[in-house]
Amino acid sequence: MLRLDGVTVSFGGVRALDAVDLEVADHETVCVLGPSGSGKSTLLRVVAGLQEPDEGRIRLSGQDQTLVPPHKRGVGLMFQDHQLFPQRDVGGNVAFGLRMRRASRPETAERVAELLSMVGLPGAQRRAVATLSGGEQQRVALARALAPQPDLLMLDEPLGQLDRGLRERLVVELRALFSRLGSTVLAVTHDQGEAFVLADRVVVMNEGRVAQSGTPLEVWQQPASEFVARFLGFDNVVDATVHGDTAGTPWGKLPVPDGTPAGACKLLVRPTGVRMTAVEDGLPCTVEARTFRGGDAAAVTLLLQPRRGPRLEASCALREAPEAGVSVGVAFDEQEVVRIGG
Ligand SMILES: Nc1ncnc2c1ncn2[C@@H]1O[C@H](COP(=O)(O)OP(=O)(O)OP(=O)(O)O)[C@@H](O)[C@H]1O
Known about the structure:
Blueprint: E1 2-11, E2 14-24, E3 29-33, H1 40-48, E4 55-60, E5 63-64, E6 75-78, H2 90-100, H3 105-118, H4 134-146, E7 152-156, H5 164-181, E8 185-189, H6 192-198, E9 201-206, E10 209-214, H7 216-221, H8 226-231, E11 237-243, E12 246-249, E13 252-255, E14 263-269, E15 274-277, E16 283-294, E17 299-306, E18 312-317, E19 327-332, E20 337-339
Parallel strand pairs: 3-8, 3-9, 6-7, 7-8
Antiparallel strand pairs: 1-2, 1-4, 4-5, 9-10, 11-12, 11-14, 12-13, 14-20, 15-19, 16-17, 16-19, 17-18
């Protein structure tokens, strides 16, 4: 459906996009994930035709888009701040794209009613935009973007402004909606949790380049670089040398899973793979901080200062969590030790 080849966009000396290759298949939801300034919005703008690339090609359904103006590209774009027209009611907002396409009145009314039901706001046509909650506005913006049935729906931080509970609920609803409609979606977000729920595939960006692309599970299980690992929230990353079934690290020898390629590399230790032992049985550490995280497992995050090597983050259940200031030993679970980059 969508294909970018070597797309580059520069602003002065900054390469907002640097030779980006990207594909989105029919009916696929791809989420572009990355820190602020990594080029996510520029990517959407270039596909929508709101920004011209300096180099590279963009194709939609096999057709080169270089000379195609934005309104003829068949893409729907929902912006970060969802900018509804305040002077129009809900129905007027949703009908906007249909009017532009010169749909008849009865046809428009029917489609607006259908879309509002779909986003969970049946019968809201006459409501004023100012009377809507943030979540309701977001749904109206989505209905407006879906109305002209774009070949490709693009969402820029679709749930950006909403509080956490609402985001968690809406993102699940969105996923179900896109799957029911068979939509092809390219969404950007800086929130990995949101991307992992919504996406069939995630694309992690860093400084205008694609750092990794894969299913949420692939990216989580096997981050391609230290950047991706840290972006996903994993801070236990060290230089290591793998030899057989162990790796030499600043924390001493760590077990690694069978088949880990030998040689110098970066190693990630997931916090759940850092287990508490008696001081004499493991790497001696002092508990520097203890943070209760809640969640299903009543998890606690521990910040440990080992006798040697950088700080370690550990995750354990509340009932097993030592107090701050206590000395503990630490052992490593090989299944949670990952060689970065394969
Ligand atoms: N119109 C512009 N003029 C100059 N520089 C720009 C322009 N648009 C973007 N940039 C720069 O290009 C880089 C990428 O910006 P972009 O908005 O695409 O990032 P982003 O990943 O969407 O960030 P955010 O998550 O903060 O929205 C940044 O360094 C930004 O300052």
